[in-house]
Amino acid sequence: MNLALAARAPAAPRIRDAAGAITRRHLEIALGVIWVLDGALQFQPYMFSNAFFSDMLGMANMGLPGPVSSGIYQVTRLLTMHPVIWNAVFASLQVTIGIGLMCGRSAALARCVSIVWALGVWVVGEGVGALFMPGTSALNGAPGAALLYAVVAVVLWPRRPDDGSAPAGAGVLGATGALWCWAVLWTGLSLLELSAANHAAVVPAAEVANIGHGEPGWLAVINQDAGHLLAGRGAAFALAAGLVQLATGLGAMRPRWRRVALGMGIALAITYGVLGQDLGGLLTGRATDPGTAPLLVLFALALWPRRQLTGTNHTLTGRPST
Fold this sequence. Notes:
- The protein is mostly helical and 322 residues long.
- It has one domain (18-303).
- It is 65% helix and 0% strand.
């Protein structure tokens, strides 16, 4: 009888209950799974070639300040001398990080290594998330997947007793600190839409259409159709994206609107990840990660309130006010 009643229950409360059952440790294990996927992608044949390192680091080096550019150039020379050895080491390290995060006893060490490695990849492999290049936006992967690996690892770093507000409440930053990270992230992404390149009529459409190159035919068609839909509407898209991203970041700071804002963040992450990044190009044989979407979803779930919040009887973290 109870099962029948549960089956007839509205979907929204069941979804909220499921989200409320997620713990910090569940999300850390999910982060480990993504790391293992990254390592598996790094074992693809193309990654063992000189072309992989020279092309990837060449793109990362575009637009960077002189000292950083020179450093990446030296790293490129080193890696292209022995690409097979270096790639095997990098792929194995990422798999090891993932397994370490999934195993409780090794999670503490894996967290430290993952943050250091992710930040290194963000600077050297992603060129500081391509933030110095015109046209960079959340649609095409800003602020860089590697940075998000580090941010999510810090948010999920256990330090304090769980305050019951959200999975991030048991983390070193607490729910409040994690919410500020979310707000800064999405506000920063909204500011990227002010770039002149992102206002150009053809830029968003071209980014969405061109990302389909090398993808299976059915996915390339989706990219082309989405690109045609955006054609000539670059300024309108930039304005809409900027406003929605700003609301996503700042709205989460208001308890009454937190679930709505986090849900918007999840929707944006999936939309951008599928249409703007093709999940990092997973089906091309050259992807190094699944893009920013899975990490932004993890971040949102880490902040998801475990109980209904209102602006009158709860603080920013979700604890009852006194």
